[in-house]
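quick one, two chains, predict together pls
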Amino acid sequence: MKRNNKLPGKTIERLSQYRRSLLLCLAQEKTHIFSHEIAALLHITPVQVRRDIMLIGYTGTLRQGYDIRELIDLIGEIIDSQDGLNVAVIGLGNLGRAILTYLSGKRTKLRIAAAFDINPEKVDKVYGGVPCYPLDRLQEILEKEEVSIGILTVPATETAGVANTLVNCGIKGILNYTPKPINVPPHVYLQEYDMITSLEKVAYFVKRNQQPG
Amino acid sequence: MKRNNKLPGKTIERLSQYRRSLLLCLAQEKTHIFSHEIAALLHITPVQVRRDIMLIGYTGTLRQGYDIRELIDLIGEIIDSQDGLNVAVIGLGNLGRAILTYLSGKRTKLRIAAAFDINPEKVDKVYGGVPCYPLDRLQEILEKEEVSIGILTVPATETAGVANTLVNCGIKGILNYTPKPINVPPHVYLQEYDMITSLEKVAYFVKRNQQPG
């Protein structure tokens, strides 16, 4: 059992993806699954799947494979926080609202506690069960709601300023969806995602496949 | 010069990210940049930056570093399609609309040619310069507009069906933002992204940093 060691980021990503697929299988009333089935769902090798699942101390049976419910629970023990973590979405444009809808009720251990915007028409309303506060109450609400993670979906011009405020408020992790990279001190965990990069990667391989040779 | 070899996906992602940062520097009227500056912006090592840029056949000068304009153009030659590629967004919920806004005018070589939705209130309107068509005209419009890449932002229940239609229409690449993984034949390039995975990764490292030891 290596449950108490810190696992690499890539392993955590895959465990999260395994759980996502397993939850879909469970919804289809499947009870057991083989590593090669998980691998096919995620376009990776069965060896990779077996290695990851062995790493978290689980083994299936040769005849039936993994028990889906047990594996989901075990992945939860590894990657979820026992007491749950509170999350805030900063910026309720289309992307911010998409994220609220998307995350609403998906993971019980990650609670979207608050949303923020500067638009007075959005403030004091509730989106997907989450109250929207004015941006100038960021510090107050983050403290009150004990928010650990901020999802940044503000316009690029506001990115740096809001990120600094989050850091000053003691945020522990930031997921940056704005088109502008940010800098945070080493004690804050940062994950950045830019759609342009994903799209350019697809475009590159599409182009290359079209070309002869 | 290795420009004609197919570069790995990870290299393409970094080149795309370099260009993103370089465009921001250029907007701030900076003309030259050192590898360690690019590295700091993207939280990677200067060695990695120099290796990638050497790989595409470019070198800076010791005194001034890289010429930003030249490097942007060169990255474009490598990762962009000469004639451009047409993209369609399928599903105009919050996420689909966020993507249209986000990509609008960002990269001249990737043109968002069409959007699709089943909601009659959205159909025949224009979003961020992009016309929205009814989903049942998918095949006709994809052919007419010569669309190579589909961005999937439909509800999870529709994912598999729409993905199959895209493949049957001869799509070359799919960027899947729905919470449901898909299967495509080998000639279609697939990139999937799930926000839950990114958020769970941030949560894992936030939790681990909070724990003593």
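DSSP finds eight helices and nine strands in chain A.
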